[in-house]
Amino acid sequence: MSRTSWYSRFAKASSRFCGRPRTFALAIAVIVVWGVTGPLFGFSDTWQLVINTSTTIVTFLMVFLIQNTQNRDTEAIQIKLDELIRATRGAHNALLDLEEMDDEMLGAFRLRYEQLAEAARRQVAQGGPDTDSPEP
């Protein structure tokens, strides 16, 4: 296996850390401390600016970390699904790497599967089985 980049390792570790209950509790504690200090600072513009700037910076950075982690997870799931399709007897290899197709092709596949689902529901309503594998 190849080594992962420093950013991927950092994003993964950060998302694990930030997703923990203790980190959430720490964020709540910071907000409570900020709220309690409001009267001490007379609810000044600077007092408000501290929390607004802090939350904006944290949110801005977290968006990139979350997106990186989600992209990696989605890619891994797609690869696993492709392997299941490839290894399953009777599965259609044309569905491999479907996420790379353009919207028109995806729409055509979606329409065909909607038609298959509707036909299967009619068959089940008539007391028939719902276990065959028609061609898409």
Between the first and last Cα atoms, what is the distance in angstroms?
Answer: 35 Å
Number of helices: 4
Q: How many whole angstroms does the radius of gyration measure?
A: 25 Å
Helix content: 55-70%
User: Uncertain regions: pLDDT < 50 for 5+ in a row?
Assistant: none
- The number of E-state strands comes to 0
Organism: Ideonella lacteola
InterPro entries: Iron_permease_Fet4
Keywords: Membrane, Transmembrane, Transmembrane helix
Protein name: Low affinity iron permease family protein
Walkthrough of the structure:
The structure is a single chain. The chain starts with 5 loop residues before the first helix and ends in an 11-residue tail after the last helix. It has helices spanning about 5-20, 20-35, 45-85, 105-125. The mean pLDDT is about 90. The protein is mainly alpha-helical and about 140 residues long. Helix 1 packs across helix 3. The protein folds into two domains: about 5-95; about 100-135.
Question: TL;DR of this structure?
Answer:
Helix content is 70%, strand content 0%. The protein is an all-alpha fold and 136 residues long.
